[in-house]
Structure formats: C-alpha cells, structure tokens
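Incident review: delayed structure delivery

Summary: a single-chain prediction request sat in the queue longer than the usual turnaround. Root cause was a stuck worker, restarted by the on-call engineer. No data loss occurred. The affected request and its eventual output are reproduced below so the record is complete for anyone auditing the incident later.

Affected input:
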Amino acid sequence: MTIAIHQPHFFPWLGYFHKIINSDAFVFYDDVQFERRYFQNRAQIKDPNAETRWFGVPVKKTDRSALINQIEISDEFFDPDSLLSTLKNYYRKAPFFDDYFDSIAEIINTKNPSLLDMNLKSTKLFLDLWEIKTPLHLSSELKLVEHEKNLKLVEICKLLSADTYFAGRGGRKYMATEKFDENNIKIEWQHFEPDKVRYPQINGEFVPGLSGLDGLFNIGHEALLDLIVKLPKTVES
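Output delivered after worker restart:
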C-alpha cells in the first residue's frame, strides 16, 4: 500500500493532485507548523499580462509555532468579493470559466471558515469533479505519539499499514531515509515536471506550475485529469 502525506494547500497545483492520484491513501498533514508566505493560504494564477500572481486569503496573526489546523482566516482583511473579482478579471474569457466559477465562489464565500476547512474544500472540489475516491485522512486525527518529523512520517505509514511512502523530491533535503529502511518502508520519489503538463491557456504563453484553477478554467476537469493520469508515476529510486 502506497500513501502520500502533504500539508493542506489552498487550491493546489497539479503536482499535488498527481500525488493523491498515485497513492492508495492520502494524509493531510495538518498538525505541523503553519508556513507564512507559502502555498498553505495562497496559490499562483495567471493575469491578463501573462504574469504569475498570488491568489489567496489573509490569516489572523498567531504565534509562529501555530499549527496549520489552528490558523483562522482574518475577518478584518478577508474580502471574498475582491478575491472572486480577481478570478473574473483574469479568467472570465476562459472557455470553461462559467462551468466552475459558482462552485469556487461557494467555497470562498463560506462564512468564517478555518484555513484548514477552506483548503480541504478547495482540494475536494477537484477530487469530486474527477470522481477520485482515494481515502483521505487528517494527521491530527491519527493521534500520533512521535514528535521528530521523520519518525512522525514513519508512524503515519505504520498506522495506515503502508509499505511505501510516495514522497516529493523536496523531501530529499530533510528526510532521514534510514528511518524508513529500519521500518521496512520503501520510499518512492515523485518526479512531477510541471512544464510537461501543458494545455492551452488564455492570456499569452503557457505558464507552468499554476493552481489547478487555471487548468479548470482553460480546458475543463476531464481534459485536466487526462493530462495528469497520462503521466507516468515517474519516481526515482
């Protein structure tokens, strides 16, 4: 059994979904430290000048050690109408914009959600459209006892009876692979290349690595899923 583990992101990019689709179970790593100015509360989209722009929600000030599942969206600075207006200004001419805008607006207009709640809804929007049934878990619900980050990942694998951990390439920088070896857990390294997941985009030349929203608006969910599943799992040993 193969599992993947990742912090919950706001309207994730396609590499995030590549992980979920190629796993037998997926764990939202929600009880780790929130990273400011990162993808946990924002995503990248493309403006009419073919420039990459941040699209996200402001969060309340907290202690720097706050966990993702403790983060709340700022009532003072969050403006759903402005956020949705940005999407309209950037994508209203996209072929499939009208097919998905209302569903996205419903998520963004949810009254006073936690960041975790919004991130889960933004991810499940895609999975529901694609009818992807990969079991989803929250790490906070697994009642982990380990504290060291490598041992926490190993513990999650063991609790879910996984013999393979599907890891992003960035994990090579910090993962103590021997901890997995000691517990007979194989590591497969994801090798997702965003530049190879090309599709027609409005507003100029193709820009890789954007939120999945860009793909939805430009080519629709069926064609977008087809692009992802056609990629090999592409792991490095």
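Verification: The radius of gyration is 18 Å.
Action items: add queue-age alerting; document worker restart procedure.
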